[in-house]
Amino acid sequence: MPIGFTSEVIDEEPKYVPRKTFIECEECNQIFISREYNKTNAAASCNCGNINIGIHITEYAKFENLVTVRWTKSPPKIYEEE
Ligand SMILES: [Zn+2]
């Protein structure tokens, strides 16, 4: 095991969410809407820096892009539009 590696690094895999999904930071309560992110608006982070939104361009055209969510302090609340 390399020096400096710790088991705390567990959330490296981004979470993929469908479009029309709300992503709420539980630290600062900022809400993102996944469908607002695309090739021309590809990244955002919340006020407290906990949540980082990005996109993943897909190679095949069924979905133009997927929205990815990473976090540092606590996982976001993710829910579908009603
Ligand atoms: Zn936040």
What this model shows, in words?
The chain is an all-beta fold and 82 residues long. Helix content is 0%, strand content 38%. It has no helices and 7 strands. The strands form 2 sheets. The chain has a 4-stranded antiparallel β-sheet, with no helix packed on it. It has a 3-stranded antiparallel β-sheet with strand order 3-2-7, with no helix packed on it. The protein starts with 14 loop residues before the first strand and ends with a strand. It binds zinc ion (ZN).
Profile the largest sheet: 4 strands, antiparallel
Strand content: 35-45%
* SSE run: EEEEEEE
Structural class: mainly beta
Please state the overall shape, judged from the principal axes of the Cα atoms: globular
The count of helical stretches stands at 0
Small-molecule binders here are: zinc ion
- Low-confidence residue ranges: 6-10
Distance between the termini: 46 Å
Q: Roughly what is the average pLDDT, rounded to an integer?
A: 81
Radius of gyration computed on alpha carbons: 14 Å
In spatial order, strands of the major sheet run: 1-6-5-4
How much helical structure, as a percent, in the residues? Answer: under 10%
Strand element count? 7
